[in-house]
User: Fold these one by one.
Assistant:
Number 1:
Amino acid sequence: MKRFAIVGHLAATAGTFSLNDLPGSAGRMDVLCRAVNSAFFLSHDLRRDVECYLVLCGKPGPEKTVLFVGSELRYLSPDERSAGALIKKALSLPCGDEFRESTPGVYVRRGDLARLLAEHDFAVLDEEGDDIRHAASLPTGYLLSDHHNFTEEEIALIAERQRHSVGPLSLHADHTITVLLNEMDRREHGWS
Amino acid sequence: MKRFAIVGHLAATAGTFSLNDLPGSAGRMDVLCRAVNSAFFLSHDLRRDVECYLVLCGKPGPEKTVLFVGSELRYLSPDERSAGALIKKALSLPCGDEFRESTPGVYVRRGDLARLLAEHDFAVLDEEGDDIRHAASLPTGYLLSDHHNFTEEEIALIAERQRHSVGPLSLHADHTITVLLNEMDRREHGWS
């Protein structure tokens, strides 16, 4: 199983935002929608061996985590609005401390990054990390930030984690996921 | 200069589509919007050395070509709707045989793939091509298709072009552009 977690620092935690304004009213939810697209889509297929966690930290709070499970996913199309609609539906459900399914393969719970990091091992993708192409083996889980840098509090949580970099330039989260999955694909298929 | 050209087989050629339905009313314009995002966006920066041609072949016709020029671009945000709005504005202009600017860095003209291929050299990205990581040098221009395969007529036009592949799996056009630019970034910055 491959796991990605993306922190949405301003991302809405209620399903009241407009699908016509994902960057504004939904707190840059467009960034998270593109990350979902990169995590799952192949040409005419989905990556069934991926799970993607969106840690939403915006208004009205408290934090929620939305989970997409590739092996169960339905109703996801590649456009941003499609992922946005599934997130909006999940956030519209009454939500407790345990994951609850909203549509096939999409789950929601209350919970922040600290809780998620206690449950799964994630390496951190940042420009200062080791080049993924030179890693003897690649971690299966990766944590990324949205358009904002990690906060001081988050940095303290991830201080001891492995750090990897996908290239010399600083990329958007979705592009980083795409490059990383390409490296994993190559290793799995014996492309050196 | 790096050049990308993406053929939108069903993509609208008039600016009458709804930004709320880029996949449907605009003929999978969402695919082209994501390709524009991948071609230009870095974290907090734009790739100024890229030009991106969208060859639109859908209704009502005839074919039009929309050109995004990185060194001149303004008003482009990463979300699909932003690129869609710039394309819609370009397609709403009266349009002749020569490129005409609609917003800074965005141009439109009547014209099909055959004309574009006569003007610039494009390698073809497809799964049967040579691995980009093993190419002694990389071409600067690349042609990609949207969610449909190239037509027989297009295949005849590109039969003699160089073919490159970015990995073992078949990817969406935007993901292919992202992987390719990562390889170019690495070569330019001495990352082996």
Number 2:
Amino acid sequence: MPYFDAASSAPLHPIARQALLAALDEGWADPARLYREGRRARLLLDAARETTAELVGCRPDELVFTPSGTRAVHDGIAGALKARRRAGRHLVVSSVEHSAVLHSAEAHGAAGGDRAAGSDGAVAGDAGGDVTYVPVDRGGRVAPGAYAAALRADTALACLQSANHEVGTEQPVAEAAEECRAAGVPLLVDAAQSLGWGPVAGPWSLLAASAHKWGGPPGVGLLAVRKGTRFAPAGPADEREAGRAPGFENIPAIVATAASLRAVRAEAAAEGARLRALVDRIRARVPETVPDVEVVGDPERRLPHLVTFSCLYVDGEALLHALDRAGFSVSSGSSCTSSTLTPSHVLGAMGVLSEGNVRVSLPPGTSADEVEGFLRALPDAVAGVRAELGAPARGAAEEAPAAGETVVDALGRRCPVPVIELAKVFDRVPVGGTVLVLSDDEAARLDIPAWCEMRGQEYVGEEPAAGGGTGYRVRRTS
Amino acid sequence: MPYFDAASSAPLHPIARQALLAALDEGWADPARLYREGRRARLLLDAARETTAELVGCRPDELVFTPSGTRAVHDGIAGALKARRRAGRHLVVSSVEHSAVLHSAEAHGAAGGDRAAGSDGAVAGDAGGDVTYVPVDRGGRVAPGAYAAALRADTALACLQSANHEVGTEQPVAEAAEECRAAGVPLLVDAAQSLGWGPVAGPWSLLAASAHKWGGPPGVGLLAVRKGTRFAPAGPADEREAGRAPGFENIPAIVATAASLRAVRAEAAAEGARLRALVDRIRARVPETVPDVEVVGDPERRLPHLVTFSCLYVDGEALLHALDRAGFSVSSGSSCTSSTLTPSHVLGAMGVLSEGNVRVSLPPGTSADEVEGFLRALPDAVAGVRAELGAPARGAAEEAPAAGETVVDALGRRCPVPVIELAKVFDRVPVGGTVLVLSDDEAARLDIPAWCEMRGQEYVGEEPAAGGGTGYRVRRTS
């Protein structure tokens, strides 16, 4: 039963399991204590820090272990912003960061590190900060110089992921770090998706990562703060982990973190090449075997194990279920999942199709046979979902061309229905004619222009529509 | 090799180990995902929450898992204070809370939930809150009615531990919770030391605990927020754990938490009675076999497995080392440890001797033989440390009584030297005469009055002394 969602969480590496077990027996005591059990725990913690720091590319005293990657990001950003309040309150992030970074940015923007006031009657603590979201290209990558251009005299911190979690695109982190250094602004790198594949290059100031993403245990994040970087931990004081990560140290998991990072790094070059070839195969085959599909993300500058594609006229959640029934565990950044009704901010920032989105991220050890099995199963899974939704086959329209503008009322219908209804009428529209799609689904704002791009048709623009929705106008050009 | 520091961290319970191992294989995936591995993880998480909530005495949807007890306390206090900002900024805590609570109180007092400005140039975010520290009696217990008396119209939150971590004294939590409820103020109970022994009684509003304290795994804390309690999570948003505990769920450890809590609860009545008898034995024997010792903490209303005593004329750190060499791992709240130069705030609030402090906390399964071995080893260990420090034997002074006031200059000398020097001269002082001890060690402020109490002599008071220290005056009354 192939599991293809390593980017969410990788199965525990055998070395991690082994190290965790050993450290459960040796590392359960308080490392601050003077007796033998405490000293033993301290030795394990120190050794794990040495190993991990070397693999991160920092000094042991620059690295602390947090309870998760999310906490590393939250606490790293809060600590860096707090330490540089005198420099200013401006924060720069890319528009395709992980939600951990974006939620930190929202909190900073709303109330200076405090979440916005809610219906509970809480009020903001002080004036909000200012956030700049750096755009990306259609491949999901920030442009060279984009960070330099975004920095201001009052910029306290910039954040950039090493590689995107939804589409696998690698960011120009080393270049951005140089740009930030030149401006005297610290750069925090969210390396959650890439650290198992290698260290992050460039003069970054802070780095966050998460062990379970590379096959380490849950419950451990990394936060590196390079010497010379101002840092003032937010929240109540705590003496552990250099005052930067409150709470009793989870030493068994930390030991497993170090051991597993060393193990995956030892395998990274060979396994990366092997998985890259499998992903290349997916990138090539999916558009050949599935109609109306868009493979997204930078085709070259990308993580070796991850590929994302979107399927027109497909409900992403239904497709995930179909693939699950076929035995394949994959994920989605699509708008069409139960957990959220808004489209993926990553796909939105890239301006690509979000509907029917599938992310395949191969864990180490994935076999070619498993990938071939997926490629065999996918076309039927997509076709099944499309059939259920009544998606159009191309050229199926038989009615006479309508005169004037064709209006498609998709109000109250969820993604991907608005695009399906658009496609259904489009063949009846004369070249030069327009279609106005009325929709109140947020995904339509992304997916109708993306459909035009894929079909080579003109997206004219949007206008408010009667009934509370938005009208999206498309002109047939061919 | 007996380990007697369960109150710091208990060795992993065999059931916890077993559950952790099983859940490593089944619970590593993201429980928010729709595929089978995610559904399996979700089932494990839900089941663990059900089990744990029942043992805590709350509903499953009132309980979230945090990365540690410290984080449960920090985030619980911050969230409760934030939600009740309109009610006011006043916080009530007992003076013997764990540092996790006190550091939260300090952060609130300094800067409204933000740590005080440091040398890094950071500035406070907004006006500080107001904190009331409720005193305790000589047994370490808050008085009935003390919380009711401390509450004000602008009190946002009150916090009280279920039992003290240093001396084992149980607090009147149910009574305090009633007092708070009557005033419409939520009470947060830090149940870290007691939850393995039983649920916390009374109408508390929030409860925090830590799994590794009862033999569960490291990396898991509990935060319960009862329905009807206002709560506004501080910090960046995160959708997991009801928005109250950011970060990827550590499901294997959470499963082990539930299983181990159930296991220790099943053994709690019998094991508690057995350990209580062993602690009674220590409480009785130590004063018989070790001269100049004070057993501290409430003798009856206490945790079953924990006893603390302080030894006059003893350097606590040296005593811990001596006991470690003799094969016994015990802890200390003493001022005389390497990690801090200030006396234990708990012993200070109780007004008892802090020097030569030893905390014995027996893990489940401790045998009577191990305790007898400790009782045999202790007198020599204490005598050895005293001999090295040149502590006085009673009645050893041979010189003639000095006329007028005797001045002991202990400036620059660390605890327990000032008390040793006092004792050395005291037998030469005539009844009615006084000794002025000059000291710049903070512990002297606690230990000289405590010495007077133990010796039945009069502590007159303190005054500033030349040379930057303080003069502590003692009158010989017998």
